[in-house]
Amino acid sequence: MPSFQARHVALALAGLLLAGGVLLMRESVGTPAGGGKPPPAPAIQVDVATVRYQAITDWHEYSGRLEAVDRVEIRPLVSGTLTQVHFQDGALVRRGDPLFTIDPRPYQAAVDEAQAQLTAATAQAAYTGADLARAQRLLAGNAIARRDFEEKRNAAREASARVQAAQAALQSARLDLEHTRIVAPISGRVSKAEATEGNVVDRGNARPLTTMVSVSQLYASFEMDEQAFLGMNGAAATGAGATVPVSMGLANEQGYPRQGRLAFLDNSLDPQTGTIRVRALFDNPDGRLRPGLYARVRLGAGAPHEAVLLREQAIGTDQAKRFVMLVDAANTVSYREVTLGASREGWRVVQSGLAAGDQVVVNGLQRIRPGDTVQPTLVRADGSALAAGDAAPLPGPAPDAQHRS
């Protein structure tokens, strides 16, 4: 019995010793070498930009179609047989280049006939004029009756009128002969020929022989809504749109690389649609613009004004609220709710909530919370590193970084 009690006591002492060893191990692992509290977590590295105001322009964007400045339907002015087509379908031609030739022989014969009639009329006028001159001398000597003199004067006048009629007939015949050679009235691109050699055409043809469009400049035509029209400055609203910035991009182009000018505002708004017809004029140096192409048009609205712009990555979302994180002089993060305006290509206009000089976190927003201590790195507003020698972050957007509405 004593031996059993001794073994029980020995086992209890061994358990106590084991528990004490575990507690000592835990204390040795969790306690720093020098004693005291554990070291604080390292500061989070973030990129910070200084808020600045800058001049921006509000933009309105529209969809439209390209239209030719000049479009001409080529129709025959005389009837006859086509003897020659001088162009390739779809070719570029200059003003005055020949397009079609109609058989000129009947019209040349008409010119010759008119010329002969003019010659005869001129000869008759010369004879009657000389006869009238003799009658005037005889009348002075009372050697001719007054009635005979009047007849000769009337004959001379009729001969002169026949000369004028013959001259007009000759001019008309020459004009018809000239119209047998159809030339380009403008410089531009010609469509396909609707009639080929050997076909008889008539001056009353309902279908044109071909069409031509100018290519050096084209219109971008679109519809502007009433509110946008009312927001335009006075000069633009009256049609003097030389100072209104207008740019355009085709369906396969990024942004709006083509610059133009406002050329036309219609004289009234359509009450059914609430829009007004607008045209912007664009140069076509590379010849890529064609009538009918889809065009994205960006039109400046109003005068430039001061605003704050931030990248989308610097703006957080808290349910229905939008916010940014500010860094103060002690490198402590704070929450700031902001009101946003329009957006353009990754930039957002901040309408309220920020002031010039505020330090905003532009990279690393997801890694921080209000009250955290951070290690800020000063960068530009777009998140790029400052260039050597920059004393302060430059404004974020490029010179044309303007937003749309």
UniProtKB/TrEMBL annotation:
**Family label:** Belongs to the membrane fusion protein (MFP) (TC 8.A.1) family.
Kindly provide the name given to this protein in its UniProt entry: Efflux RND transporter periplasmic adaptor subunit
**UniProt xrefs under Gene3D superfamilies:** 2.40.30.170, 2.40.420.20, 2.40.50.100, Helix hairpin bin
Chief location category: other
Q: Where is the Multidrug resistance protein MdtA-like beta-barrel domain?
A: 221-301
Q: Does the keyword Coiled coil apply?
A: yes
Q: Which organism is it from?
A: Castellaniella hirudinis
Q: Does the keyword Coiled coil apply?
A: yes
Positions of the Multidrug resistance protein MdtA-like barrel-sandwich hybrid domain: 71-211
Q: Which InterPro entries match?
A: MdtA-like_b-barrel, MdtA-like_BSH, MdtA-like_C, MdtA-like_HH, RND_pump_MFP
Instruction: Cite the entry's keywords alphabetically.
Output: Coiled coil
Q: Where in the cell is it found?
A: Cell envelope
Q: Where is the Multidrug resistance protein MdtA-like C-terminal permuted SH3 domain?
A: 307-367
Q: Residues in domain Multidrug resistance protein MdtA-like alpha-helical hairpin?
A: 112-180
- Give the source's domain of life in one word: Bacteria
Q: Name one Pfam family in it.
A: RND-MFP_C
Q: Which residues form a coiled coil?
A: 149-176
